[in-house]
Prior knowledge:
Largest sheet of chain B: 3 strands, antiparallel
Shape of chain B: globular
Shape of chain A: globular
Order of helices and strands of chain B: HEEEHHHHHEEHHHHHHEEEHHHH
Number of domains of chain A: 1
Largest sheet of chain A: 5 strands, mixed
CATH superfamily of the largest domain in chain B: Cytochrome-c3 Hydrogenase, chain B
Radius of gyration of chain A: 17 Å
CATH architecture of chain A: 2-Layer Sandwich
Strand content of chain B: 5-15%
Strand order of the largest sheet of chain B: 1-2-3
Number of strands of chain B: 8
Oligomer: heterodimer
Number of helices of chain B: 16
Amino acid sequence: xxxxxxxxxxxxxxxxxxxxxxxxxxxxxxxxxxxxxxxxxxxxxxxxxxxxxxxxxxxxxxxxxxxxxxxxxxxxxxxxxxxxxxxxxxxxxxxxxxxxxxxxxxxxxxxxxxxxxxxxxxxxxxxxxxxxxxxxxxxxxxxxxxxxxxxxx
Amino acid sequence: xxxxxxxxxxxxxxxxxxxxxxxxxxxxxxxxxxxxxxxxxxxxxxxxxxxxxxxxxxxxxxxxxxxxxxxxxxxxxxxxxxxxxxxxxxxxxxxxxxxxxxxxxxxxxxxxxxxxxxxxxxxxxxxxxxxxxxxxxxxxxxxxxxxxxxxxxxxxxxxxxxxxxxxxxxxxxxxxxxxxxxxxxxxxxxxxxxxxxxxxxxxxxxxxxxxxxxxxxxxxxxxxxxxxxxxxxxxxxxxxxxxxxxxxxxxxxxxxxxxxxxxxxxxxxxxxxxxxxxxxxxxxxxxxxxxxxxxxxxxxxxxxxxxxxxxxxxxxxxxxxxxxxxxxxxxxxxxxxxxxxxxxxxxxxxxxxxxxxxxxxxxxxxxxxxxxxxxxxxxxxx
Lengths: 153, 382
């Protein structure tokens, strides 16, 4: 299914999503505020998005962007759900109650970006050692062991 | 003997918090974990009551390193993700860069990508099936599977120059055209003779009573659980979900081939391994069709600059790798280096169900269950 067809069907079902819905490079994107992201994903799951493909974060300076990508086996299309959380109070609701796939994926984002997933049953580091401190994928992360690479470009 | 201060021996046993339970640590470099994975198992006798997977031993921070390299320098890094299926990582990353840049790939390059990636699928599945058999004690089966894998890897080495990390698929096309030393004829000969060898493998392990006893009914994953847990690829299809990105959301030139999607029924370890074996026949069919359809032409898009600086934006591209849906999420800020690269690794999400599946099985079955999901820890830990 193309993103255009999806937008037609989705907005017929949920007219209130019209203001947050857009199509970027052929992908359907829903941008919502962080307090309604759980609610939005729950509705999308009811709409037919039965696979939680991934969640990740992007450092956007002031804010951290959290991106969820959901996939529908029936409609054969993906949808992005984007939200922004403040850098110093980074938290969103956990999706483990909706999809069990969110368990490890959210632990990874928590580990590497320091975003708290409230309601996650077992939120602990997964990639880095358990006693590691800091969020390595944030752009302001400094580690004295990292030697700057000379810029030959 | 009674001891007033401590109670009877029987009382001590029943009072203890977990006298029957024993904690056994498997790994991190146990031979059956297919890499460096640690499994903390709680055992009641020989039966697993809880299994906690500890990963991250192979975490090299490739996503962080990629932020400090130029777009073309990231391609060899992606080889090191899933090192049993390097071609897929190259391809998924290249597709993401091409979409950011708006590059159209020449048709011959798309066919070469399909051919190499289907060869890679056979090589990867032979590794998976062989080592799954080895876990169950079938070493001769493992050797036979590796003999097939060797012939495929030899062909890939003649084409790309290396046996494991190919760095072959690049943004804009592929790095080399087919060599003029009879490579195509050798590939056609391989496609002719491999089905007979696969047949023998199928009889040797999947027709064997002992192997059936050992793997059937072990680690049954229902279709609902598989979908909720984000399991993809052959592991999902073994549970009876008929979904394959190559057929259902075709990318590249996959819509021009006719092939069947192998779907299992029971979703147990036997089915997961056998689905992989049967997929090799379909891969060989696709290769033969691709060789017939391929026409001479360019293998790289014209005028790809050495220093790529895509316009700012984000893309998510996904392909069907040997383990499932492999996605690359790429964010560009308009500079020569990626702002963020995220790899959606199928082995990572597939492995996350192992802990719950193992509960109720014996510790020797835990080994079979891990092997049946074909985890590659380069991709799990990244």
